[in-house]
Amino acid sequence: MVRFIQELKFDHLDDTALDGVNRLLRDQIALQIGISQMPWSKQLLSYASAQQRPGRSRISASTLTMSAPDAAFVNGAYGHGFEYDDAHGPSASHPGSCVIPAAFAIGEELGSSLEDVITAMVAGYEVYTRIGMLAAPDLLKRGFHPHGVLSTFGAAAVAAKLRKFDDETTLHALAIALSHASGTTEYTSTGGSVKRVHAGIGTRNGMVAADMAKAGITGPTSFLSGNKGFFRTFLQRGPAEDAQARFTLDRPFEVGTAWLKAYCACYCTHAYIDALRPFAGRLAGIEHIEARIHPAFSVVVGAANANAFTPRNIEHVQFSLPVQMAFTLLGKGNGYGVHRDFLKGEVDIDAVIAAARVISIVEAPELEAKYPGKFVADVNIAFRDGTSQHVFVEDPIGTTANPMPESEQDAKFMALTADVIGAERARTLLAALRKMDLRMKVSDLTGMWTA
């Protein structure tokens, strides 16, 4: 892993990886701007402003600057703050809201070019996801929040790359990051806006781990594979036999597979939303719907959630498979609008709960065996006229096999940014992000999205 970080150069990135970087940048920056307006984001900014250290790193959608770890803490939380950020299927995680805030904040502090920032961002993305792939699906099944756990490693890798650490310091940065790794998915059952902050917590902690290593503090060198390392404590097993080979430069870059969300809900629900979209408005004719689900995903959005059928807050809504399927059946859609409406009290949640009663969730271990790392949907629909229909979705919209059209990504970008920084500035920012001028100082780019 250390060799991968040390040896990675921008020239190693192929067209697929660069395309993934570009899509990811546009998506994550838009989210940081738009979600800065959510109530918990404003509460977080108030908290961070009272605690922060001075620095040159910008807070998205404001004129404030802070130290790099403090800015990444806030921006990472914004980017992950409404279940609308990117996903990486094989690791069941959200790398973008870690590695982009970390790379941009450190890059602003150092005066780095966009080329250097992107290289460090990819180093962090690959470390984060390749550890995550080795940990999936066990991490999720055991109740951990993969993003909360993995982001410490991703941010430490970003910092090590941008700050040009040597081998030993890089190793200790990653090893110390293990001592910061935490976060469970209990929020899916009983709520809590701290879930929105998991990206910020993990990102800041990974950067702090790197700072500690630079100061000379050391960590356990077998932090992943030791008797009491990451695998045996978090997962109760050792790493896969080919674990070392996962960190070579000749493997395809995971950043090229970045999945952008079309729906504002946990990605475990997305294939089911796609499966039911053809049946929107046809609830009256449906007797029963059986949703067969991967057991690990059921932990997050299914029967393991105490309020899956009785949502009381926005966390319940965004992490409930029955509620998201009911939104679809009722023709409400599953995007930014309906979830903002719920926060405003403008959604008839009783009608949604009633619609969800036609849905049952069945755990299907064979889905895990047959489609490892894929967020599939297997749905059986029984109609009141006695007929039935089976729907299977292997690749929900936004994945590499079923990508979100550019026009839809642009619409998402504008919906998130125009009301905050103005439509004209939003279009200018979108054009700059799409161009991705590698010679540009990252600070010149971040200056385009102050409010």
Task: Write up what this structure looks like.
With 451 residues, the protein is of the alpha+beta class. The protein has two domains: 2-257, 2-methylcitrate dehydratase PrpD (Orthogonal Bundle); 267-393, 2-methylcitrate dehydratase PrpD (60s Ribosomal Protein L30, Chain: A, 2-Layer Sandwich). Helices cover 51% and strands 7% of the residues. A hairpin with a 6-residue loop joins strand 1 (57-58) and strand 2. The longest helix is centred in the N-terminal third of the chain and has 22 residues, at 114-135.
SSE topology sketch:
Layout: H1 2-7, H2 15-35, H3 39-51, E1 57-58, E2 65-66, H4 68-79, H5 96-110, H6 114-135, H7 138-141, H8 146-162, H9 167-178, H10 187-190, H11 198-214, H12 230-234, H13 270-276, E3 286-293, H14 295-301, H15 314-318, H16 321-329, H17 336-343, H18 349-356, E4 359-363, H19 365-370, E5 377-383, E6 388-393, H20 406-421, H21 423-435, H22 442-446
Parallel strand pairs: 3-4
Antiparallel strand pairs: 1-2, 3-5, 5-6
Helix pairs in contact: 2-4, 2-20, 3-4, 4-5, 4-11, 5-6, 5-8, 5-11, 6-8, 8-9, 8-11, 9-11, 16-18, 20-21
